[in-house]
Every structure is written in C-alpha cells, then in structure tokens.
Design brief:
The protein has 141 residues and is an all-alpha fold. It has one domain. Helix content is 72%, strand content 0%. Helix 2 packs antiparallel against helix 3 and helix 3 runs antiparallel to helix 4. The protein is elongated, with a radius of gyration of 22 Å.
C-alpha cells in the first residue's frame, strides 16, 4: 500500500465532507480549470463533427451528440464546482462536489456505452433493412 501514500488525503472521508476545506492553491486551480476546460473544448469539437456528419450517418451523429452532451455538462459542472470552491461559498465548496461530478461522468458514460453496445447495432440493422427494402420500391416524383 506504499503507492497510495501520496494520495492519503483522497482516502480520508474528512477531505471530501469538510464544509470549510483549505482553499485551492493557484497551481491546482489552473490545472482543474484546464482539465474541465478541455472537456468543454472537446464537446464543441464533437458537436461540430456531428454537424458535419449528420447527412452521411445519423446514428453516428447521435452517438457524437451523446458524447458531446456528456463532456459539456461534466465540464460545466466541474467549472461550477471550481468556481464555488475558489470563491469559498459555504457548503458548496466541499470537495464532495468534484466527486459527484466524477460520479455523474462515470454513470453517464456507462449509459452511452450501453447504448453503443446494446441499441446501436439493432438500430443500424433496422436502417439497413429499410434501405434494402426501399431500393426496390418506386420513388415519388
């Protein structure tokens, strides 16, 4: 357990539930800001990619939009948690809110992965069958 020695604060319950934690240092604030800012930038990039691909493949566009929503809201909630922690707003400055943001990210990512594994192949198959059937039907003029 020697490798966890540097992370002992994270394993302490009082670190997460302390209503008045030690303010974040400037280097940690910049690192957290960069981390959650990257989520926002990645969400914007995925949204633009989804907009470009919407005519070619609507299902992949849907997946990209789901990932973009996930990244945007995780980034926004992380930045909000950083702001209230930086401003030392009582109750909301607890480190617990960063943990809740991480938990939300993992649960939402699981739901997106479940959609990709379970629902995406069935939807893809139904679209291919519909296109195969429409190939032989007369088209409207």
């Amino acid at each position: 357990m020697g490798f966890l020695r540097g992370y002992s604060a994270f394993l302490n319950v009082h670190y997460w539930f302390n209503p008045n934690p030690v303010p974040l240092g400037p280097s940690l604030v910049s690192q957290i800001l960069t981390f959650f800012g990257f989520f926002i930038v990645a969400a914007i990039a995925l949204r633009i990619t989804a907009h470009v691909l919407r005519k070619k493949d609507s299902l992949r566009t849907d997946i990209l939009k789901r990932f973009a929503r996930l990244l945007f809201w995780t980034g926004a909630l992380g930045l909000l948690a950083l702001f209230v922690s930086y401003e030392q707003v009582p109750f909301f400055q607890m480190r617990l809110w960063f943990l809740c943001t991480l938990f939300l990210f993992v649960v939402w990512l699981g739901r997106v992965a479940l959609f990709i594994v379970r629902d995406y192949p069935a939807l893809r198959l139904s679209i291919e069958e519909r296109l195969q059937l429409e190939k032989y039907l007369p088209k409207k003029r």
